[in-house]
Specification:
The protein has 96 residues and is of the alpha+beta class. The longest helix is centred in the C-terminal third of the chain and has 10 residues. The protein has a two-stranded antiparallel sheet. The chain is globular and about 40 Å long. β1 and β2 form a beta hairpin. The chain has a domain of 65 residues. The chain has 2 helices and 2 strands, in the order ββαα. The structure holds iron/sulfur cluster (2 copies). One iron/sulfur cluster binds next to α2.
Length: 96
């Protein structure tokens, strides 16, 4: 049984076969879900996003498993990004 990073719309689509391509997108922090400070980037205007490292992925991605290391505290945007949704399929098509 697979564990998704996100909500699931189409169970035939698995995050395990994807290398977390959506975790390369810019993720705005809109609400406080308890994301650890070391994973937050604050721009000159005070806006908060998930920090991305030089390889392009969110710093909270475990590079060996490609899973979210802060799942319980992941941002609202990540909770809303549904596995198997059109935006998921678009990212997979671009990033696989
Ligand atoms: S793009 Fe879709 S399948 Fe890939 S990690 Fe994100 S939600 Fe999962
Ligand atoms: S917080 Fe987790 S689910 Fe959201 S982009 Fe980072 S690794 Fe992916």
């Amino acid at each position: 049984m697979s564990i998704s990073l996100h909500n699931v719309i189409d169970p035939s689509i698995s995050c395990f076969s994807c290398k977390a391509v959506c975790c390369k997108l810019e993720v705005m922090l809109i609400t406080d879900t308890g994301v650890p400070k070391e994973h937050i980037k604050i721009d000159a205007w005070g806006a908060e996003t998930m920090l991305r490292l030089d390889d392009g992925w969110c710093s909270a991605v475990d590079r060996s498993t490609m899973m979210c290391t802060i799942y319980e505290n992941r941002p609202w945007v990540c909770r809303e990004f549904a596995t198997g949704s059109q935006e998921c399929l678009d990212e997979r098509r671009e990033g696989l």
